[in-house]
Amino acid sequence: MVFRWYFPCSDHCACKRPDVTAKTVPVETFDLVIFGGTGDLALRKLLPGLFRRYADGQIPEDSRVVGVARDTLSDAEYRARVSEALAAVIGNEPVLQAKLAPFLARLGYHALDATKDEGWQGFADELLAHGDRIRVFYLSTSPGLFVDICNRLRAHGLNGGKSRVVIEKPIGKDSASAAVINDAVGSAFSESQIFRIDHYLGKETVQNLMALRFANILFEPLWNSNYVDHVQITVAETVGLEKRAGYYDTSGALRDMVQNHLLQLLCMVSMESPAAMRADAVRDEKLKVLRSLRPITAEDAAALTVRGQYRAGASNGGAVPGYVDELAALEAGRTDSRTETFVALKAEVDNWRWAGVPFYLRTGKRLAERVSEIVIAFKPVPHSIFEQTAGPVMANKLVLRLQPDEGVKLWLMIKDPGPGGLRLQHVPLDMSFAEAFGVHQPEAYERLLMDVVRGNPTLFMRRDEVEAAWKWIDPILAAWETMRDSPRPYTAGSWGPGAAVALIERDGRTWHEDAA
């Protein structure tokens, strides 16, 4: 049984007031340069996101998008690649089809090598010819090129005025390498110009978490160790390596997902109320959480962490190879790897609000389902007044689904309708964003790209946040190196190693599974 949340129209409803209907506010004219413009992220996420914003009228006609890569391509050839990538976005929608040609006309291409000086002066002259307009440099490349690109942007005068630089994770592989990158980028751009992107913070549900907590009195009084039993954060993928073998095998799930995505979600759940919805006020509170995380040392890493690696199994209706076999096919000669494709761990925030409340985190590839969600599990009622025949009284849960179907569920106990005595059921009040609002929900990159153009850093990581996250992750990495254990095997298409189940069940809890 599922109860939906509906929003009935009234004279005050937004749909009856043209002045407050959902609309997009155009940003200033800008140039956006994508380094790695022929790569997977650019073609699959960044350019489709920009196209959507353009189609909705948010991007001015005189703005430009420039792809940069080492491939030798003409503008026309690059536009053809982008057009092919946008086909899935456009589908059979006539409105989007009509917007394709004018959007492609905004696109240009430059062949540049980040490690060489050739071609940079002409590239700089073309951008500077447009005066001091907003210039966004998106570094959709390997982190090893961040320093070279930023140094050349500075050398050619492209780091001044309204220039901004966006850097993707991973920012380093540990504290030391992150400091090198941050120092180099910081020598070319001021901190206010640097946007360290984590696309999970751009998801509608993550932002709605702020609204649920701080725009309603219902939850905040209960948002503490007196009423919350534990918190679960799951980011599960069904895909394997895809085209990321070279990067992933030197990174692993802890660096790739936990250090950024999962810790940022943990911060959003557990942070104190900021003084205002201003960038530094929000990021100050997240930083306090990161600095309050109880360290996981070599002595307790075995009890508090689980790492795994998928073996051959079934996923998305077909047989799939194991990680090592997949790696060998992509990188000839590789026959083994100790890289983890799954991580589960138990974290604690040592402060007054959350003392004694465990945060269970898990993430992995080739899992049973593609899902990202946050579960706030409340404590059970202190005493049940109902007879045993009514059934068990289950604890309330607030479930925030980030993907694939963004929404919020509040699990409650209610009486089962009908005669024959009182029977209890555990059912969700269910709000699906798509059903409730009936409009296209901008993807995370759409929102974040426009925030960069506006110069709004609220949903981006500050340098001290990155440093604090690595400070907590480094001892776990060191402990794993000391332990020298191989990752625990798990079958592709499962929910990970059995040890991940034991991690939570030895505390008398279990991983959330949405059966509704």
Radius of gyration: 24 Å
**Spatial gap, N to C terminus:** 7 Å
Q: Label the overall shape.
A: globular
Largest sheet: 10 strands, mixed
Number of strands: 18
Strand line-up of the largest beta sheet:
1-17-16-15-14-8-13-12-9-18
What's the tally of helices?
16
pLDDT < 50 stretches:
6-21
Structural class call reads alpha/beta
Mean pLDDT, to the nearest integer, reads 88
Q: How much helicity do the residues have?
A: 25-40%
- β-strand amount: 15-25%
Catalytic activity: D-glucose 6-phosphate + NADP(+) = 6-phospho-D-glucono-1,5-lactone + NADPH + H(+)
EC number: 1.1.1.49
Protein name: Glucose-6-phosphate 1-dehydrogenase
Pathway: Carbohydrate degradation; pentose phosphate pathway; D-ribulose 5-phosphate from D-glucose 6-phosphate (oxidative stage): step 1/3
Please characterize this protein's 3D structure:
It is globular and about 80 Å long. With 516 residues, the protein is an alpha/beta fold. The protein has 16 helices and 18 strands. It has helices at 40-55, 75-90, 94-104, 120-128, 146-155, 175-188, 204-214, 245-248, 252-270, 279-292, 301-304, 323-330, 433-437, 444-454, 463-483, 498-505, and strands at residues 3-4, 30-35, 64-69, 107-111, 134-139, 163-168, 194-197, 228-236, 305-311, 313-315, 318-320, 342-348, 358-364, 371-378, 397-403, 407-415, 424-432, 488-491. The strands form 3 sheets. A 10-stranded mixed sheet has the order 1-17-16-15-14-8-13-12-9-18, sandwiched between helices. A 6-stranded parallel sheet has the order 4-3-2-5-6-7, sandwiched between helices. Helices cover 35% and strands 21% of the residues. β6, α6 and β7 form a beta-alpha-beta unit.
